[in-house]
């Protein structure tokens, strides 16, 4: 009796450079989006540590802020920002696929689902900018 065939994909199945088709680009973008979640979660932990240090006292907070201002951490901030943008934009663009909204018998157009997300994002970003810049 034969054993069933179970192929073992390569570790980098999503980035086959020899056969870099449109499908592979889609997989690569999917993997980058998944990787962005790791950076977003890591940055959230960093912000939680900042909140804990702020309650620990001024000296601890200033020491941690100096650490966050170091050149290596500025690179981490830049990567976290870029991955956060990638994560947010791709999630907003996937929302119509995750939400199957209908109005009667017809589907709600994807633009009507995506657009309020971007509008809310811009409004909240503007309010936060006003709060910290004024």
Q: How many structural domains? A: 1
End-to-end separation: 76 Å
The CATH topology turns out to be 3 helical TM bundles of succinate and fumarate reductases
H/E element string?
HHHEEH
Number of helices: 4
Rg from Cα: 21 Å
The overall average pLDDT, rounded, is 87
The CATH top-level class label: Mainly Alpha
Describe this structure in words.
This protein is mainly α and about 130 residues long. It has a single domain (about 20-100, about 105-134), classed as 3 helical TM bundles of succinate and fumarate reductases (Up-down Bundle). About 75% of the residues lie in helices and about 5% in strands. It contains four helices and two strands. The protein has a two-stranded antiparallel sheet. The radius of gyration is 21 Å and the shape is flat.
């Amino acid at each position: 009796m034969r054993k069933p065939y179970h192929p073992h994909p390569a570790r980098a199945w999503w980035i086959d450079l020899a056969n870099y088709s449109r499908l592979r680009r889609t997989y690569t973008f999917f993997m980058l989006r998944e990787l962005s979640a790791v950076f977003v979660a890591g940055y959230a932990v960093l912000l939680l540590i900042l909140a804990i240090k702020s309650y620990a006292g001024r000296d601890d907070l200033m020491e941690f802020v100096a650490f966050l201002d170091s050149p290596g951490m500025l690179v981490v901030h830049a990567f976290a920002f870029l991955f956060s943008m990638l994560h947010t934009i791709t999630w907003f663009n996937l929302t119509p696929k995750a939400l199957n909204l209908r109005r009667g018998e017809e589907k709600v157009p994807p633009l009507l689902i995506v657009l309020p997300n971007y509008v809310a994002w811009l409004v909240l970003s503007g309010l936060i900018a006003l709060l910290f810049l004024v």
